[in-house]
Amino acid sequence: MAKEIIDTLAIKEIKSILEDDLSEQEMQKALVEASRGLPSVTSFSVMEIEDENGFVDYSVDTSGLIKGLNEEFLKTELSTEQFERFGFNDMKDLDGFSVKVKENLLLGMKIFFLLEPVYKLNNQLDASCCAILFCKAMELQMKDCFTKSLKEIFPNYKVKGSGKGRDRIALKDAQNKELTLDAFDKILKNNGSELGRRMKMIGKGTYDEAWWSSFESKLGDYTNRRNKCCHIGLFSWKEQSFLLFDMFKNDDAKQQKQNKPIGGILFESKVGKSLAAN
Questions:
Q1: Which residues partner with 168 through β-bridges?
Q2: Residue range 99-156, pLDDT digits in tens
Q3: In 3-state terms, what secondary structure has residue 264?
Q4: Residue 207 per-residue DSSP state
Q5: Is 66 exposed, middle or buried (0-12, 13-18, 19+ CB in 10 A)?
Q6: Which residue in 38, 255, 196, 199 sits closest to 132, CA to CA?
Q7: pLDDT value of position 277
Q8: Domain span holding position 218
């Protein structure tokens, strides 16, 4: 409980300052001062898994942050314009995600809009306390969409395990914690042709080998940015904007021209559930 209070104190203070009747000069000074207390990624529990090539992947526990802030932000509603900035029409669009993905997304968006004006005053603002919520949402979404299907399609594909005697394990035996973003990225990278073939068989030829290659490339970029967020040190607001672009935006002009859009990977990841249905 004490840790939850400490980790969320600065965020709550910034919310209070923005709601206070202060002069512009007083508010700016108070916001800059409060932003110095924002929790860095070192404040949160981080699990590390290292693969055979020395690449380290991360999983951050955001449950304390969510528990500590949910009451504070429970009555805060996002506007239509704010939802649209993240590719949603309204709250109903979030109902297609699992409860855990939804709560991380929702709190992430609320903190994003809370801290956005503070960043304009303090360009050295550490965005990791906001970014890790989106990172957790993406990690959980990939597990929700791909765990069942990939285990069924590639049961004997080898992935890096975690713990004694689990150096290299069959995908069908992988534990939930061992299915990291990097693990998913490697599976998709090495099996794009087969995934494209399977999608064609069920009448979804848009998702061909080229589509899977584009999706995997964006997932790889996102994973690298996510891992930077989990490292000790400043994770800037600008770096967070690149991470959010990969999650929510459609930027592949070549794919668009071929009528094979790669939207933000958060949305496109839902194709994994189609694989499980066949």
A1: 160
A2: 999 999 999 999 999 999 899 888 888 898 899 999 999 999 999 999 999 999 999 9
A3: coil
A4: S
A5: buried
A6: 38
A7: 57
A8: 2-276
237-248 vs 128-153: helix crossing angle, rounded to 10: 30
CB-CB contact of 39 with 7 (8 Å) = yes
Residues across the chain: 278
How many domains does the chain divide into?
1
Where do we find the tokens 């970014």?
131
Q: Which helix (H) or strand (E) holds 57?
A: strand 56-60
Pair of tokens at residue 7: 């980790």
pLDDT of residue 254: 47
Q: Which residues pair with 160 in a beta bridge?
A: 168
Report the C-alpha dihedral over residues 262, 126, 15, 130, rounded to 10 degrees: 30
Task: Categorize the per-residue pLDDT at 255 as very low, low, confident or very high, splitting at 50, 70 and 90.
Answer: very low
